[in-house]
Specification:
- The longest helix is centred in the middle third of the chain and has 23 residues, at about 100-125.
- The protein starts with 18 loop residues before the first helix and ends with a helix.
- It is globular and about 50 Å long.
- It is built from 16 helices and no strands.
- The chain has two domains: about 15-95, no CATH class; about 100-275, Hypothetical protein af1432 (Orthogonal Bundle), CATH 1.10.3210.10.
- Helix 2 (about 35-40) crosses helix 4 and helix 8 (about 140-150) crosses helix 9.
- It is mostly helical.
Length: about 280
């Protein structure tokens, strides 16, 4: 195996996140409240409008009639769900030009985390849309490192790690920053809502039983790994049952007893989103 370089991550070399997705994220902060505004932003963008129409016509929505325009799709999906769709599609669009197997794994992990976080947040009376979006974006720093330095990052991932904190140490040694630190920088650089700061920087520090959005996302990150949607192979991976027990008591009953059942459910939803 070729030796790893010590190339440092630099914020000025990071490709910009899709403008439509950034707009959707800023809606969470209350900077805009109009479904029509978001709809008007999507309509001129062929990639986003096509994806919104495809999802509106998919079994995820199961509308009785064909949805033929973005305004109709927006009204059918509703403001919050539309925003979530745009953020999910935006993350994938960000990886589009270098959608390697590693980045596909990162994307699937992020979406699995978002779906799990949404389910748990609903049971804990938390903002489920924030939890979903936070789950999708929690690994933004990892995605940016993998997009900015794909070969170096892939070689680091191939080495695996004992656990997430072991991998963070490896990232710092190779790139000068780990993906949690990079995520925190991006929240500031891209003027994302402050709610995403603890989610991107502390998603490997979740506390068992905690009922905050960032803790739910952290536990959902562990769940995505336990279900097999992990970009890094950890030698000391927590089992599905152990992760379930770490969730607040009100959320535990929402997870199937059998790991494979939940993995199939999440996998089916991801497949619908990522299919052409």
């Amino acid at each position: 195996m070729a030796p790893l370089s010590r190339e440092k991550w630099r914020p000025d070399r990071v490709p910009p996140f899709p403008a439509v997705a950034l707009k959707a994220l800023n809606l969470i902060a209350g900077r805009d409240t109009s479904l029509l505004d978001l709809c008007n932003l999507i309509r001129p963008d062929p990639a986003f409008s096509t994806e919104v129409l495809r999802i509106a016509n998919s079994p995820l929505v199961a509308f009785s009639k064909e949805v033929t325009n973005v305004l109709q799709a927006s009204m059918l999906l509703g403001f919050r769900r539309l925003r979530n769709v745009v953020v999910t599609v935006g993350l994938r669009a960000y990886m589009e030009n270098v959608f390697t197997p590693l980045l596909r794994s990162c994307w699937r992990h992020s979406v699995a985390c978002g779906m799990t976080a949404e389910r748990a947040a609903r049971a804990c009376a938390l903002d489920k849309e924030l939890a979903y979006t936070g789950g999708v974006l929690h690994d933004l720093g990892r995605v940016v490192l993998a997009v900015s330095m794909p070969d170096e990052y892939e070689r680091l991932v191939e080495q695996g790690a004992d656990d997430p904190h072991d991998f963070l140490r490896a990232e710092r040694a190779r790139f000068g920053s780990d993906h949690c630190q990079v995520g925190g920088v991006l929240v500031t650089e891209w003027a994302l809502p402050p709610a995403f700061l603890p989610i991107t920087t502390c998603h490997h520090d979740g506390k068992a039983g905690a009922t905050s959005a960032d803790s739910i996302v952290a536990l959902s990150c562990l769940m995505a790994d336990a279900l097999g949607f992990g970009p890094v192979q950890y030698r000391n991976l927590r089992s599905y049952s152990e992760v379930v027990e770490n969730f607040p008591a009100s959320a535990r009953g929402l997870f199937p007893t059998e790991k494979d059942l939940f993995a199939e459910e999440i996998g089916a939803e991801i497949a619908l989103i990522e299919s052409d």
